[in-house]
Structures are given as structure tokens and as C-alpha cells.
Design the sequence.
């Protein structure tokens, strides 16, 4: 019997009185003990599938047709009481944000105990034994101690392991894992994925694994379903689908992903972004057609049927045979000429915080950055990588002057920014700018785009006329690839990618020599990320500026930058040209970072997740 | 940006409340033309006459007379002038002091924030009405003294509420971005922080007006408000208290006037909060 069978599942969303399908006619079979991956960008409807199974759809959304058969029983039509006995027992969930999924005011032990009691275990001692056994199985050391601890005393990765242990403690037949690693540090990813894979094979559980990462899906899943705008555009065995994609969307996504091993090339850029539910109403025919390089008039006329192209493989595209022809222009130069002259030199930079100072206890000093030294040459893109809490953002804040350093020197074009005479920010503002991580927070929601990106022209004693500002707005919008009519929009009317472009345009307004970019593509989808990475590379060759690119994504770093600084615990533990460092990492932490990236080739073995290795 | 103004004018709360306030303000401004009598004129022949529609009423005194034979309607109309003057100037005064301190406190943080915060704490630990009574004893009676007393007591309300809003706004990256682009502290506060706190500021002013009307009535009631020659609703209540059995209307009418004015300001404040507050506007509708 199948663990889960979706038959023509339709989830409708009520928008302006009309019902728009957010998931359209989704069908798939999940065999017991197999992992199926739902992959796609945000808005594709992949999380909606998990929510439909849990019957936790957001307000305005409802299952309007089709069925979800769990071991032959229809979850959509069964009585609520019966469904309650299944959910959390036979069907378990692993959440996306482990820190918020646990109750912060109760110990791990109390929460685990409550969960087991709900599963029907009456004996208190038996519950405790079971909790200890499950935590040990989740490879958590000191399980006994852990039971007495509160969630805030654990790291995100440990919380996620506790939740995985809880999910599998009911011996579920189906587990739904919705982006279980996205909120965690990259070095945690392999361990968590390995744990899910091990638990799954031990218990013979079927897993629905929801992710945006194609490479990860290729490594972990048996089968994948690629989703686009609520429709399964392609499905089949994971490695087959991802090594020879049949749908243009799958192919484009792969080409938009920067590679860890291949030659550097320009990333493939799909125009625009995935249509919203509202926009979907106005698209006739194939929903991917407006962004598809292969689209013909036939594609726009009617929705493509699901075409079976091989055993277990189907694709919703009438031009699938041409998909292989999509490619990027090879050899497009990403790196450009880098001069020897340093624009920024950092010598022995330190930052110490005093914590716990109060009336009755003396202050303790915590070093956020210990003795960091590096330099950036003109036109050079340097990457700063490391886990969260390693001090990356603190360095950025000290460079731009939002935090005063506790020691060391920052030389910008040879002038010491930390010298008392340099307290004025004018010089800094002219030649050093920052692009912020969260474009939502970085743009004043009350300013129109024109007033945001030329904000530098009203700073201090500068009073540019409105006409000058409008002229500069036009230039900047063109440079970041937005049309001129964006000038009158408010940030609330922009998408995430457009906001980040505005963010970049504002930083470029006074033509800085150095940009500090703090995780500027990390919250964005792959296709939007590719647009921005290509934009940054083009802007460098047109305008000429250096950049300190802070990121945790090594493939992005490898694509864009020529040199890398690896931070760990407030120290720069390794630095050098990317090719050298990535080929032959010296520090343990660099190796951990590198091993957390799944290989490019779907057929390749990822040592971190290799089930045959011990 | 015309959006919020148009939006608030579509709200029934705001429309009804502004209509009521417009009527009261109209009475206050044109009191000299509307009132049938001078509010101080006594007609000792007809004291405590009931309203015109009741038995024994005199049509020349539509709402009757008080214990000194003064026209109640005229005194109500002139009382509106006192109430509105206090409401407008006291709330604006409290707003200016409170919001300046709130922006300084929330934006700079650190020691400045600590000092202003403790000042507000100490200030707020006095019961507000008692504090204003003590102030009035020290300052003496008069319209300007009433306004000053309310400003000195109520600036803390603005300071505390706005400070938390300033803190939230200041944490946004666009404030840091403005500083990096070369904005001075003053420019950052005025051009980036203030526009974001303005909706709350406007709402608080409207609510403060209601409070000012009540406080003015209390002060006048105990004889520490405006001078005896100036008609005020609180004074009318105090006068009518002794004759409540002979002439209940004299007590009820000024109470009704206070009630309607306070209700109008509160309704306006509530309506503005619903339409101007971004967070409520996003989730509430």
C-alpha cells in the first residue's frame, strides 16, 4: 500500500472574490520508506502541500478538489477526530524554524514527556527511557542532562535534532520536513540531513522533503517533484531528473545556480520572477511561458498536459525535447582586472563588548572580533565567510562606522578612519557604502524610490535640486536594470529582488570605491540571486569598485569573488585566493564549510551524506 | 503622501468625530454671535428657571437659568470656548515637550535615554490630578495656568509611548543607511524617524485633548481652574451641585457637554489610530 497518494489535489485561494488555484491538480505516489523531494522557488506552492496534509492552510486557502490518500484513507474527507489520531502520530512534522517550534519556558524533558504521553505511553519511567533512547539515536550527547535544559540553552542544530527525535518517537509512517535546514548554519546541514536520512531508513518512514536546493534534493531524495506556480512541472527519480532535466524551468534553475566545481561562467538569468497568485489569473497557457526561452505561441495558447517521457518520469512541457539546448554563454568573464593598489587596509582590528555590567556584578568582556587584518585592492571582490556569530557583521559595522572599534586601524585609501580627526563621516560616506541584508528594513517605506536612491544628495549640507536628483535617479535605475517608471514607486510596491536592486542603487549613488555587502542575496530565490550576481559583476566592470562580500554560501562566493577570508570565533582563520583555499583548505572550519555544500553533479557522491560511510 | 488622509476620511469613526468636534469648535469660536445672552448677565428675577420645553420655562432662556439667573445655554457655549482652548494648547504643548524628549531618548539611547526614562518614572509616580492641583495652587488661577499645569503633567504620556515607537523605528536598517549616506543626527531624526512616528503622534494628540478637557473640568470644579469671571463646564457643575433637586438640568447639561466632547476626541483618536497605524492597517482589514 502506498504511504501517500495525492490525486489531482487542488488548493484554492480566495483572491478578490475569485478562487485561484494555488496548487493545481497535483498527483504523486509515495512508496513506504522512500523520500520524495518537493523543490521549487518560494511561491511555487511546495509548502502548501505539507500544510494541506496537516490541514493547516492559511486563511483564505482551502482544498477544493482531489484527494490525499494516506495508506488508503482520504485525509481530505475523513472525520476530524480520525485525522487528529493520525497527525502527530502516524504523520509527523519537522519544522523549518526549530527555535520557535519549542516552548521557550519549558524544559526539553517536559516537552518530550508531554509528547510521549499524548502518544499514549502511561508509565512515567517508560516515557523517560524512550525519550533518552530517542535523543541518543539523534546523536545528542548527554541526553540525561539535555532533558533538564531549556531550548535557549541549545544551539539551533541541537533544537532541530530534538525535534527530529520527537517526530520519529511515534514511529510515524510519514514525515513531512519543510526546509528543515534553512534556518540553521551551513555547517549543521549535513549532520541534520544525515540524521533525517538515517532515522528514515531505520524506521522505514516515507518522507516528504520540501526544499529549494536542487543539489540537496539530488543527494537526499529518491524522487523529486519540481514545482512552479502551483503546478508540478516535472517529476521522476531524483538523480535522473536533476542530471537530465526535461522541463526548461528545471534546466534554467540549474544554470542559475553558481557552480562549486565548473569553470566560472555568467549565470543563466530568467527574466522577471515567479508570478503571484494574482498575476496567475492573467496568464493563459503554460505558466512558465513568460519566462521560458523556448516558449512558442502554442505554449501560450493552452496549458501543457503531463507527458510521460520515461518510466516514472513526466514533464508538463510540449517542447521538452529542446530543453537540453538551453545554455549560458560559456567563458563569459566574471573576474576582471584587479589592480595591486589597496583601497582598504585593516590592521589588527578588534571589538570587545562588555556584558552583564550592572550595579551588583562586574562586567565580563567578550571579544567579538580578535585581531583581524586584511586588505582589499581596487576592483577586487573579497568574500568574508563564516557561521553566524563568527563576527562577520561586526567587522562590517566597524568598517562603515556604525560601531567604534576597540582597537586596530582601518585605512581607506591610506587615511586612518579610526583617527580622532576622521570622526566626521563625510569622507567615509563618499567612498564607502553598505548594502544591507534585509531590503525590507533597509528602505524607508515612506520614501519613493527616486528619493531613496538619491538620498545621498540631500545628506549633510548638500542640497541638490529635484531635477538633478531625477536625472541621477534615471541613470541609477538604468544601471541596476530597473525601468524609469520605478522612480515613483514606494518600497511596498516592489518585490524582494527589486528592493535589493534599489538598495544597491542607493549605495552606488555617490560612486563609492568600496561596497560592504552583508548577505545581500541570502534571502532571495535562485533565479533572483542569479540576476543580482550578474548585476554586481556587470556594475564592477562598468563603474569599478571593490567589495567586501559577506556570505555563508560558498558557491555564490566562488562565483563572484577572487579572494576569501574565513572567520571562526571572531578570528580570521584562513585567507587567500579562492581557488587555493577551496582546493586545499587548511583550517578545520574551512573544511567543515566546504563539506557542507552538496556536489554539483547529481550523480556524484556527497561524502557528508554518504550512507555507506560510517 | 495623500493616502493616509484620504483613508482616514473614509472611516466613519473619524467622520462622525470630526463632525462633532467641528460643531463644538464652531460654538467656541463664534460664541459671541450664537449665545443669546452675555454669560455673566444675571437676571435675579428668574433664577433656576427650567428649560424652555419644561413647565414654567421661559422661551428667552432656551436651557433655563442657574442659581444666579444666568443663561445656561450661553454659559455652555462660552464654556466650550474655555474647553477647546485648553484642549488645543495643552495637548500641543505636552506633545512638543514629550515628543522632543522621546525622540532624543529613543534615538540616542544610552545615558541620555536612562536619564529621561528615570525622569518620566519619577514624574509619573505622582497621581496626575493631585499633581496638577498642587501646580494650580502654586501658579494661581487662569486659563494660561491651567494649560501650563496640564502640559507639565501630561508630557510624560507622550514621552513614554513615543519613545518605544522611536526605538522600533530606529532599529530599522534604513536609519543606519541614512547615517552612512552622510545624514546628520538632526536630519536623520526629522526626515527618517519623525515621518514614521507621526501617525502615533497625531493619535496621541487627539486622545490627549480628551484628557485635557476632563482635567480642566476637574480643576474648575474645585475652583482652581480658570478665573470666576470665565465660564467653564466644571464650574457650572460645581454651581449646580447645591440645587440638584430643584433644577437637575443645570447639573446634567454641562456633564452632557463634557461627555460629548470627550467622546468625540476619543472616537477621533481611535479612528485615526485604526487608519494611520501601519501595523493595524495591514492586519486589521
Sequence:
Amino acid at each position: 500500500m502506498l504511504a501517500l497518494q495525492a490525486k489531482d489535489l487542488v488548493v484554492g485561494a480566495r483572491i478578490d472574490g475569485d478562487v485561484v488555484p494555488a496548487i493545481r491538480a497535483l498527483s504523486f505516489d509515495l512508496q513506504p520508506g522512500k523520500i520524495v523531494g518537493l523543490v521549487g522557488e518560494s511561491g511555487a506552492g511546495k509548502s502548501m502541500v505539507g500544510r494541506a496534509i496537516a490541514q493547516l492552510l492559511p486563511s483564505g486557502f482551502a482544498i477544493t478538489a482531489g484527494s490525499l490518500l494516506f495508506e488508503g484513507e482520504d485525509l481530505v474527507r475523513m472525520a476530524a477526530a480520525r485525522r487528529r489520531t493520525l497527525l502527530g502520530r502516524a504523520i509527523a512534522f519537522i519544522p523549518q524554524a526549530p527555535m520557535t517550534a519549542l516552548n521557550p519556558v519549558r524544559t526539553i524533558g517536559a516537552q518530550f514527556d508531554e509528547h510521549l504521553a499524548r502518544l499514549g505511553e502511561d508509565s512515567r519511567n517508560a516515557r523517560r527511557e524512550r525519550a533518552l533512547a530517542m535523543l541518543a539515536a539523534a546523536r545528542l550527547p548527554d541526553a540525561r542532562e539535555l532533558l533538564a535544559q531549556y531550548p535557549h540553552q541549545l544551539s539551533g542544530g541541537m533544537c532541530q535534532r530534538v525535534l527530529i527525535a520527537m517526530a520519529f518517537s511515534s514511529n510515524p509512517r510519514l514525515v513531512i520536513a519543510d526546509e528543515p535546514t534553512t534556518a540553521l548554519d551551513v555547517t549543521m546541514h549535513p549532520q541534520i540531513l544525515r540524521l533525517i536520512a538515517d532515522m528514515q531508513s531505520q524506521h522505514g518512514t516515507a518522507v516528504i522533503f520540501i526544499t529549494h536546493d536542487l543539489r540537496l534534493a539530488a543527494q537526499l531524495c529518491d524522487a523529486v517533484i519540481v514545482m512552479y506556480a502551483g503546478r508540478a512541472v516535472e517529476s521522476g527519480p531524483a538523480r535522473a531528473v536533476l542530471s537530465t532535466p526535461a522541463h526548461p524551468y528545471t534546466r534554467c534553475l540549474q544554470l542559475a545556480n553558481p557552480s562549486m566545481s565548473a569553470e566560472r561562467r555568467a549565470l543563466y538569468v530568467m527574466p522577471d520572477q515567479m508570478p503571484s497568485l494574482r498575476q496567475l489569473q492573467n496568464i493563459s497557457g503554460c505558466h512558465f511561458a513568460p519566462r521560458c526561452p523556448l516558449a512558442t505561441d502554442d505554449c501560450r495558447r493552452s496549458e501543457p498536459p503531463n507527458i510521460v517521457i520515461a518510466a516514472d518520469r513526466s514533464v508538463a512541457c510540449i517542447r521538452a525535447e529542446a530543453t537540453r539546448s538551453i545554455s549560458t554563454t560559456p567563458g563569459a568573464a566574471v573576474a576582471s582586472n584587479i589592480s595591486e593598489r589597496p583601497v582598504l587596509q585593516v590592521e589588527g582590528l578588534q571589538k570587545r563588548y562588555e556584558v552583564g555590567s550592572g550595579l551588583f556584578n562586574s562586567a565580563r568582556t567578550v571579544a567579538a572580533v580578535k585581531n583581524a587584518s586584511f586588505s582589499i585592492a581596487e576592483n577586487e571582490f573579497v568574500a568574508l565567510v563564516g557561521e553566524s556569530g563568527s563576527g562577520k557583521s561586526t567587522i562590517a559595522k566597524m568598517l562603515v562606522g556604525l560601531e567604534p572599534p576597540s582597537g586596530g586601524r582601518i585605512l581607506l585609501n591610506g587615511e586612518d578612519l579610526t583617527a580622532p580627526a576622521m570622526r566626521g563621516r563625510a569622507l567615509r560616506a563618499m567612498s564607502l557604502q553598505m548594502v544591507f541584508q534585509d531590503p525590507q528594513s533597509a528602505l524607508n517605506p515612506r520614501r519613493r524610490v527616486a528619493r531613496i536612491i538619491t538620498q545621498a544628495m540631500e545628506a549633510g549640507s548638500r542640497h541638490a535640486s529635484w531635477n538633478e536628483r531625477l536625472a541621477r535617479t534615471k541613470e541609477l535605475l538604468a544601471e541596476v536594470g530597473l525601468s524609469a517608471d520605478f522612480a515613483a514607486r514606494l518600497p511596498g510596491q516592489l518585490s524582494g529582488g527589486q528592493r535589493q536592486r534599489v538598495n544597491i542603487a542607493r549605495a552606488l549613488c555617490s560612486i563609492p570605491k568600496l561596497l560592504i555587502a552583508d548577505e545581500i542575496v541570502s534571502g532571495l530565490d535562485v533565479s533572483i540571486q542569479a540576476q543580482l550576481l550578474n548585476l554586481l559583476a556587470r556594475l564592477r566592470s562598468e563603474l569599478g569598485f571593490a567589495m567586501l562580500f559577506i556570505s555563508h554560501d560558498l558557491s555564490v562566493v566562488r562565483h563572484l569573488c577572487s579572494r576569501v577570508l574565513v572567520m571562526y570565533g571572531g578570528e580570521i582563520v584562513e585567507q587567500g585566493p579562492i581557488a587555493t583555499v577551496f582546493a586545499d583548505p587548511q583550517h578545520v572550519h574551512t573544511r567543515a564549510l566546504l563539506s557542507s555544500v552538496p556536489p554539483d553533479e547529481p550523480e556524484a557522491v556527497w561524502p557528508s551524506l554518504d550512507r555507506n560511510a560510517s | 503622501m495623500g493616502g493616509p488622509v484620504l483613508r482616514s476620511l473614509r472611516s466613519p469613526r473619524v467622520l462622525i468625530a470630526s463632525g462633532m468636534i467641528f460643531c463644538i469648535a464652531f460654538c467656541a469660536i463664534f460664541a459671541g454671535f450664537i449665545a443669546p445672552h452675555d454669560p455673566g448677565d444675571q437676571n435675579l428675577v428668574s433664577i433656576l428657571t427650567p428649560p424652555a420645553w419644561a413647565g414654567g420655562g421661559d422661551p428667552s432662556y432656551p436651557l433655563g437659568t442657574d442659581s444666579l439667573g444666568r443663561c445656561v445655554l450661553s454659559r455652555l457655549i462660552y464654556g466650550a470656548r474655555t474647553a477647546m482652548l485648553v484642549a488645543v494648547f495643552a495637548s500641543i504643548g505636552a506633545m512638543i515637550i514629550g515628543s522632543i524628549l522621546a525622540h532624543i531618548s529613543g534615538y540616542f539611547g544610552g545615558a541620555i535615554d536612562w536619564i529621561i526614562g528615570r525622569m518620566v518614572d519619577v514624574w509619573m509616580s505622582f497621581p496626575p490630578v493631585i499633581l496638577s492641583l498642587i501646580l494650580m495652587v502654586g501658579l494661581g488661577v487662569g486659563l494660561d495656568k491651567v494649560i501650563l499645569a496640564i502640559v507639565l503633567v501630561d508630557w510624560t504620556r507622550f514621552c513614554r509611548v513615543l519613545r518605544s515607537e522611536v526605538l522600533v523605528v530606529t532599529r530599522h536598517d534604513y536609519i543606519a543607511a541614512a547615517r552612512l549616506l552622510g545624514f546628520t543626527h538632526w536630519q536623520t531624526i526629522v526626515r527618517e524617524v519623525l515621518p514614521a512616528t507621526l501617525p502615533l503622534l497625531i493619535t496621541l494628540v487627539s486622545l490627549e485633548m480628551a484628557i485635557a478637557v476632563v482635567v480642566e473640568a476637574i480643576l474648575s470644579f474645585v475652583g482652581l481652574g480658570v478665573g470666576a469671571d470665565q465660564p467653564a463646564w466644571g464650574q457650572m457643575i460645581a454651581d449646580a451641585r447645591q440645587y440638584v433637586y430643584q433644577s437637575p438640568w443645570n447639573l446634567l447639561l454641562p456633564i452632557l457637554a463634557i461627555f460629548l466632547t470627550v467622546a468625540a476626541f476619543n472616537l477621533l483618536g481611535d479612528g485615526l489610530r485604526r487608519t494611520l497605524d501601519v501595523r493595524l492597517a495591514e492586519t486589521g482589514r
